[in-house]
């Protein structure tokens, strides 16, 4: 927003009236008095829908718990097109915590608008939710599951890696059992195509070895840069229109 000449009012939940028990609706109505749009991240799935119902200004979903993260899906799809020239005809493999990862939930839904094949690689307890898989089947998107990276990487055009999210686990022992199950290394990438790309929504923990950063196929830091431009464009579309003329 600052690069577009605007300003930002930041709200910290810990020090705001939310900590005193204020409802999402009241908070959103109050904040809408101070700005032309609200960019909102909230730990509860569905919270953005509630905010949008009561807000007189546009609401941009910056992530709602384990639900959705649509702006990340926009920048991810843009990254694929910029890096590989097209989205159609690609095999896209998603790795890691597919159950709780809001980025992959939004991404696969957006990718269903294209001609793609999706491959899921995850621990059994962190599979892509059945309802999302069912939705994609209705849209005619080929989906498959692989038990190992080695099994999937050779035919992959896009390797989309996510971290196992410690904060989503009530049982630390369960987290320890699955973290580190899949790690992308130079050895793994020896089996991959020379023109494929590795993506990650960041932050990473240990699921991509730092040695991979020097491989030209490592696109995750370029992905972050693309995200700046995509989100600037989104803000212009949402806010700039109301100020046109």
Explain how this protein is built:
The chain has 245 residues and is of the alpha/beta class. 37% of the residues lie in helices and 14% in strands. It contains 9 helices and 7 strands; from the N terminus they run αβαβαβαβαβαβααβα. α2 links the parallel β1 (38-42) and β2. α1 crosses α2 (47-54), α3 packs across α4 (102-111) and α3 packs across α9.
Summarize the structure.
The chain has 245 residues and is α/β, with parallel strands linked by helices. It has helices at 24-31, 47-54, 70-84, 102-111, 130-138, 149-153, 172-178, 186-189, 220-243, and strands at residues 38-42, 59-64, 90-95, 116-121, 143-146, 158-161, 197-199.
Spatial ordering of strands, largest sheet: 5-4-3-6-7
H/E topology pattern: HEHEHEHEHEHEHHEH
How much strand? 5-15%
Helix content: 25-40%
Outline the biggest β-sheet: 5 strands, parallel
Helix/sheet category: alpha/beta
| CA-CA gap between termini | 20 Å
Question: Which residue ranges are poorly predicted, with pLDDT under 50 across at least 5 consecutive positions?
Answer: none
Number of strands: 7
**Tell me, what's the shape?**
globular
Q: Whole-number average pLDDT? A: 89
Radius of gyration: 19 Å
Number of discrete helical segments: 9
């Amino acid at each position: 927003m600052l690069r577009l000449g605007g300003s930002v009012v930041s709200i910290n939940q810990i020090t705001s009236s939310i900590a005193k028990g204020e409802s999402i609706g009241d908070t959103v109505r109050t904040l809408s008095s101070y700005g032309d749009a609200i960019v909102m991240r909230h730990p509860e799935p569905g919270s953005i829908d509630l905010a949008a119902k009561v807000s007189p200004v546009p609401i941009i979903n910056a992530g709602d718990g384990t639900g959705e993260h649509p702006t990340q899906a926009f920048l991810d799809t843009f990254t694929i097109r910029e890096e590989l020239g097209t989205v159609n005809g690609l095999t896209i493999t998603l790795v890691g915590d597919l159950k709780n990862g809001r980025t992959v939930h939004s991404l696969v839904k957006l990718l269903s608008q294209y001609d793609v094949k999706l491959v899921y690689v995850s621990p059994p307890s962190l599979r892509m939710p059945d309802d999302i898989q069912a939705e994609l089947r209705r849209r005619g998107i080929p989906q498959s599951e692989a038990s190992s990276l080695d099994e999937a990487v050779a035919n992959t055009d896009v390797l989309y890696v996510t971290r196992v999210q410690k904060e989503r686990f009530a049982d630390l022992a369960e987290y320890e059992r699955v973290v580190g199950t899949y790690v992308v290394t130079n050895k793994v990438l020896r089996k991959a195509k020379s023109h494929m790309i590795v993506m990650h929504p960041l932050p990473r923990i240990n699921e991509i070895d730092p040695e991979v950063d020097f491989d030209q196929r490592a696109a995750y830091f370029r992905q972050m840069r693309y995200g700046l431009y995509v989100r600037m464009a989104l803000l212009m579309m949402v806010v700039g229109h109301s100020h046109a003329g």
